[in-house]
Design brief:
Elements (H helix, E strand, L loop, with lengths): L1 H17 L18 H17 L10 E2 L3 E2 L1 H13 L7 H7 L14 E4 L8 E7 L2 E4 L8 E4 L3 H4 L2 E5 L5
Antiparallel strand pairs: 1-2, 3-4, 3-7, 4-5, 5-6
Helix pairs in contact: 1-3, 2-3
């Protein structure tokens, strides 16, 4: 009986996310039921596949849809909403503050969020780690969502923080 209730709690947000709704403006992470490891792994895989599927989508400042384009936090919000039924904060600052527990770089897993400081001391750019030392992100005006390596000198030198929204 408990397993059925837990499954219902996990499936309901995903079904509701499929129905169109206004973007979430709240900077807090939406609450979610505690996930068992297998469910978290499945959702992380869904997030990873969703992120990879958006490579090539145009960059657009403030963008948060495949049709309109993405900025970095809009990409993350879209992928987590569609792939895991989870509403995350809309800004990089909000994500860096509240999008799950901080994880040591050496323990990263697919679906974790990676944060960079490109021009300030605080994180001002973010992406989704997809495994094998790579991450998906929406880097700049005039560009597209792309897959990059964390060990590339530019990104390696600017990596500041890793968070795990799906707590596994």
């Amino acid at each position: 009986m408990i397993a059925v209730r837990l499954l219902a709690l996990l499936v309901l947000p995903a079904l509701l996310a499929a129905c169109g709704r206004a973007p979430v403006r709240d900077e807090r992470v939406a609450t979610q039921p505690a996930l068992v490891r297998g469910d978290a792994e499945r959702l992380a895989q869904s997030v990873t596949i969703g992120a990879l599927g958006l490579v090539g989508t145009p960059y657009r400042y403030g963008g948060n849809t495949p049709a309109g384009g993405f900025d970095c936090s809009g990409l993350i919000g879209h992928v987590y909403r569609e792939g895991a039924g989870l509403a995350l904060p809309r800004t990089v600052a909000g994500l860096a503050e509240a999008a799950g527990p901080e994880i040591p770089v050496r323990r990263m897993r697919s679906g974790d969020l990676v944060f960079f400081s490109t021009s300030r001391r605080r994180p001002d750019h973010a992406g989704i780690y997809v495994g094998e030392g790579r991450f998906v992100h929406a880097p700049s005006s005039g560009g597209t969502v792309r897959l990059d390596r964390l060990d590339a000198p530019y990104w390696r030198d600017r990596l500041q923080l890793v968070r795990r929204p799906l707590g596994r």
